[in-house]
Structure formats: C-alpha cells, structure tokens
Amino acid sequence: MKAVRMHGYGGVEQLFFEDAEQPTLSEPSEVIVKLKAASINHIDIWNRMGATGINVPMPHTLGADGAGVVVEVGARSGSVKVGDAVCLYPPTGCGHCEFCITDQDFMCVYLRVLGERMEGTYAEYVKLPAQNCFPIPQGYSFEEAAAFPLVFITLWRMLITNAQLRPGESLLIIGIDGGVASASLQLAKKVGARVLVTSGSDEKLERAKKLGADHGINHSKTDFAKVVSDLTDGGGVDVVLDCVGGEVWRKSLRSLARGGRLVTCGATAGGQPTDDIAAIVSKQLKIYGSTLGSREEFRQLIAFVSASKIKPIIDSVFPLRDGAVAQRYVEEAKQFGKVVLRIPD
Ligand SMILES: [Zn+2]
C-alpha cells in the first residue's frame, strides 16, 4: 500500500510518500479499515519533530484522524462489520487498568494513540481495535468524518464535560485559526453562548464572524484583555479557551470573570508561561487541562453534531502524496479550519 511515513525526527523533509507493508490482523478484537481520508493535527507535527518524547520504530506512519470502510474484521469485533463506513476514535489503553475498565482509556498510563505509538492514518489501510470504529455522523462526507474526531472530542470534553459551558454564558477563544478554535466556535454557538474570538489576522476575524462569532479582537493591534473587559462591562468572560499559552496566558487569566473557567489542550506559543496565582486565588478560577475524551463522550458528540448539523470547517484538501506539503501548511498556520488528506482508491 501507499503511505506517508517518517524516517526520522525533524522537519517535513523526514516525510516520504512510499510503499509500505499492508497491516494484517494480529488480535481477534481488531479490524482493518481502508481509509478514504485522514486529517492533519498539531500532534502529528509534534510527533514528527520528536517533541512528545515518544520513541517509535522507523519508518513510522503518522496521523491520528481518519475515516474509511471496514475491509477485514477479527473474530471478536462486536457489531463492527465488513463494509461499515466508519470514523476513528484515536486512543486506546491497556484494557484492564482502573481507567480502561471505566471507559477512560485516554487516561491510561499505557495510552496509545493512532499515529503516535500506533501506526497512523496517512496510509491506504490502518489496523485498530474494533471498538474504536464509530458510525460516521449523519450527512458527513469521508473528508468531514476524518476532520472532526480528535479536535471535536477534545473540545467536547473541555467545554461541555469540564467547563460545563451553558446557554447565555460568554466564551473567549484565543487565536481563531486552528481546528480546535473554529470547532469550539461552532459548538459554543449551538450551546447558545456569546463568543468572543481573537486573532492577529483581520481576515480570520471576518471569517469567524461569518461563522457566528459575536466579537472579533485583533490581538496584534490591541490588548485583548482590555477589550474583553470593555465588552463585558468590566466583568470578564465565563470561560476562556487558551491553547496558545506563552505570553498570552496571563491575559487569558485576566480576561476571566469571578468563578471563571480556563480550558487548555496545549500551548503552541510556549508551555511554561508566567502564571498569576493571585488572580487564580482571588477570582476563584478553575483551570482544566484536557486531551481527547472517552468513548461515551465520543458517542454523545456524534449524536450532537448529527442533530445540530454542525460540520467541521475544512480549509483545504491535499492528496495523500502531498502529506509533507499539508503539514508545512499547518505549521505555517495558513489555515482556517482543518487540513485534510484525500486517500485515492
Ligand atoms: Zn489502561
């Protein structure tokens, strides 16, 4: 089969579109999926750079997100059948620790994620546990079905399970460009929240407004915390989504109302920000870190996006062979929404 594989840690020059061995079943609980689409996530880039500290045998196939058709099933694949059109739930655990037996594999110390410790989706075929295959949300194309799992499950857990964002509350999204940010905007508007977004690009702010953002703040021209204060009559917002960190972190804390919640799933501008403990203490703030979510949350999410007709925003689609080009495009933050790889038949 064809795959985009990395041959070492480093830049995109480590990625090669080449022939790779097709996966075969080794456990009765596994299935093989013929992929139709995959999508690019920042985690793929961190894995490629070796920034996650995980060592995998080379060459290695990246890609946590994918969608396709089941072509082979093991003897214990449950309700998953050959011919099913599926999207993929990325993480899997050891199967018997306190987290795995309560459907919280994503907290297992032996966590394995597609494209990370497992061979990923930048390929024509992928092998994974049957229980990680879910029906594609209603009305989704394969490209849309490959664009939503990692991003949407992460923000579903952050905003709905953890921060418990409610109708009428306000949400500030820092840096409206990545897949997580644009998906959060869509989800928060469906919940009925007032949404403020920041970006260094007026063009991206305009696009966010077309998607329903109530206010756009250009953070390269103004102090966004000051603008947030003005827009909320000095009260601050109920929830901030900050996956940027670095210099921005203190301003995010400053933007929160008393009893506010900050949620984060990463730090693209630096993971060691200066904190403001006084603000956390005096304003009774809550900070939730999260990545991924449970299968039950994934089921809730699929039901929610099917009923509310939310679809992931797709910025662009590249053919599989251009996996390296697509990763560079994401690294340069050129996108608004998700970047997808189309996998030919
Ligand atoms: Zn476990």
Q: How does this structure look, described?
A:
The protein is of the alpha/beta class. The protein has helices spanning 42-49, 142-147, 149-162, 179-191, 202-210, 224-231, 248-254, 277-282, 295-308, 323-331, and strands spanning 2-6, 15-19, 30-39, 60-61, 65-73, 85-88, 91-92, 112-113, 125-129, 133-135, 170-173, 194-199, 215-218, 237-241, 256-264, 286-289, 314-319, 338-342. Strands 3, 5, 6, 9, 10, 17 and 18 form a 7-stranded mixed sheet that branches. A 6-stranded parallel sheet has the order 13-12-11-14-15-16, sandwiched between helices. Strands 2-1-4 form a 3-stranded antiparallel sheet, with no helix packed on it. The radius of gyration is 20 Å and the shape is globular. The model has no long low-confidence stretch (mean pLDDT 93). The structure holds zinc ion.
